[in-house]
Design a protein that fits this description.
By secondary structure, the protein is mainly α. Helix content is 66%, strand content 0%. The chain has 19 helices and no strands. It is elongated, with a radius of gyration of 26 Å.
């Protein structure tokens, strides 16, 4: 049965995260969320099998629970990107819709066990007003939190392409899909009964387990480097961006921008900083003695690219140079790509085709595409 499978997966994930060492803030939120999902699935399962009528005090416990899933999704997204970590006072505000539904359900909770059973056996007769209010609250809050999570993820994505040179593990596309998936479940709840909805929930849990258990805190990867270089340990990616640019908010005039661009091109061609896979905008700005904000302005306006695109363009150029050297034949294409600063075959293939219009093998020729270490399998 799919519901039992979903519950089993949820419990397994709960234990797995509970036993995880060095848990981060997102881990604790995910742990709590998985716990709520498991409890919710358990309550549905015993109701679906009729077992709940042996324990009538459990009837109605699940009534306000669905609204928590949107809240946890949003909290998880915010914490994962470390943008304005959730504060206790703010968290309480987000719980208002949940508490509102709890308070509205008090008249039902106060009923004797026999009357609770009668209400449920007659599909909520006498509490139709609550079902309608509940559905409106679920749809409004559910879609609102799904959209809010997607907005935060996309804002984060726009920020990092102008600050980091490798963002493969930081794009959070899986979390965006998760938010969209939750919105679909809300939509299902408006047109189908719980048997369909909780089938979707079981699949949703499986998706969380597959991607969320190995979530990559997008800011932590650069945190230690910043501390080592500056002695400053920011609490969020946004704070890092603010600190990196706060000392020079002014904009360069045309002559200054042209000079900075010329110096940048010289550094890129002679020092090849792009070969460092962890290169950041702040690192590059420091090398030419301008502020990160000013450098971002120069790259965006004169280069016509984001920082991420600009750096990967140079990496592809370096790859083409290295691949033409006889001594490079002992390396695979991917090995050369790593030497140039790439950390992902997918990103390398994407930018190679974007710049050349062809895949590496097609561009260089099948005879040149074979090295002693093997060949690249194109995606």
């Amino acid at each position: 049965m799919i519901y039992l499978f979903g519950l089993s997966v949820a419990l397994f994930l709960f234990v797995l995260i509970l036993l995880k060492k060095n848990k981060t803030r997102p881990d604790y939120i995910l742990l709590t969320w998985i716990g709520v999902i498991a409890f919710h699935l358990f309550l549905f399962l015993i109701h679906h099998n009729g077992v709940v009528y042996r324990y009538p005090h459990l009837l109605g416990v699940s009534l306000p629970l669905p609204i928590l899933h949107g809240v946890f999704l949003y909290w998880y997204a915010v914490e994962l990107i470390n943008k304005d970590p959730v504060r206790v006072k703010v968290a309480l505000l987000h719980l208002i819709p949940f508490l509102f539904l709890v308070i509205l359900a008090v008249p039902f909770y106060r009923l004797p066990a026999s009357e609770k059973m009668e209400v449920f056996q007659n599909e909520g007769r006498g509490f139709e007003w609550y079902s309608k209010t509940q559905m409106v609250a679920f749809l409004v809050a559910g879609f609102a939190y799904s959209i809010a999570a997607i907005v935060q993820i996309r804002k984060h994505r726009r920020r990092i392409v102008n600050r980091l040179s490798n963002i493969d593990k930081k794009m959070l596309r899986w979390l965006e899909f998760l938010a969209a998936g939750l919105a679909v479940i809300w939509l299902l709840s408006a047109f189908f009964d719980d048997t369909i909805v909780f089938g979707g929930v079981a699949l949703f849990v499986l998706f969380i387990g597959f991607f969320g258990i190995n979530q990559y805190p997008v800011f932590y990867s650069v945190q230690s480097q910043v501390k080592a270089e500056t002695g400053f340990l920011p609490e969020s990616l946004d704070q890092l961006i603010d600190e990196a640019g706060k000392y020079a908010r002014s904009r360069l005039d045309d002559n200054e921008a042209a000079s900075a661009m010329a110096l940048l091109e010289t550094v890129m061609q002679t020092q090849k900083p792009f070969r460092n896979p962890d290169l950041t905008l702040a690192d590059l700005a420091d090398s030419i003695n301008v502020s990160p904000n000013d450098l971002s302005q120069v790259i965006n306006t004169l280069g016509g690219k984001t920082f991420y695109h600009y750096i990967n363009t140079y990496r592809i150029q370096e790859f083409l140079r290295l691949s033409s050297l006889p001594e490079s034949r002992k390396f695979t294409y991917l090995g050369l790509a790593y030497q140039c600063g790439f950390t992902s075959k997918t990103t390398f293939n994407k930018y190679f085709k974007l710049q050349t219009g062809k895949t590496p093998s097609a561009y260089l020729g099948s005879g040149q595409g074979e090295h002693a270490g093997g060949t690249i399998t194109e995606k």
